[in-house]
Amino acid sequence: QVQFVESGGGLVQPGGSLRLSCAASGMIFSGYTMDWYRQAPGKQREWVAYITASYSTNYVDSVKGRFTISRDNAKKTVYLQMNSLKPEDTAVYYCNTPGSIDWGQGTQVTVSS
């Protein structure tokens, strides 16, 4: 069974930074694309970014230039570096891999002054 454990969220002021981590288990991590998603209160879950097994990346337009996804295959961990945070980035952030229906508990990011 694939499992994901997200961490690194918190309360940050607008313009601040956070680095999220997601530790994966139960999968051959290095061979899979990894995604970050987020879900704001009252909204549907939204895809944020992906990184492929060959380290190609892509981002939703709203975070381009501010967020950076990366991975450490030895640690089976994917990261999301978030800079220049805005109140509209407030959400619970999750990681997953395509085809998986297993979700972690997520990590809460709140951007507020």
Key attributes of the depicted protein:
globular; mainly beta; 4-stranded antiparallel beta sheet; 6-stranded mixed beta sheet; 10 strands
Describe this structure in words.
This protein is mostly beta strands. The protein is 0% helix and 48% strand. The protein is built from no helices and 10 strands. The protein has strands at residues 3-7, 10-12, 18-25, 34-39, 46-51, 57-59, 67-72, 77-82, 91-96, 107-111. The strands form 2 sheets. It has a 6-stranded mixed sheet with strand order 2-10-9-4-5-6, with no helix packed on it. A hairpin with a 4-residue loop joins β7 and β8. The protein is globular.
Task: Summarize the model shown.
The protein is mainly beta. The protein has no helices and 10 strands. It starts with a strand and ends with a strand.
Topology:
Blueprint: E1 3-7, E2 10-12, E3 18-25, E4 34-39, E5 46-51, E6 57-59, E7 67-72, E8 77-82, E9 91-96, E10 107-111
Parallel strand pairs: 2-10
Antiparallel strand pairs: 1-3, 3-8, 4-5, 4-9, 5-6, 7-8, 9-10
* Alpha-beta content class: mainly beta
How big a fraction of the residues is strand? over 45%
Annotation field: number of helices: 0
The count of DSSP E runs of length 2 or more, i.e. the number of strands, is 10
* Main pleated-sheet profile: 6 strands, mixed
Rg calculated over all Cα atoms: 13 Å
> Which consecutive residue ranges, at least 5 long each, have pLDDT under 50?
none
Helix coverage percent: under 10%
Instruction: Compute the average pLDDT.
Output: 96
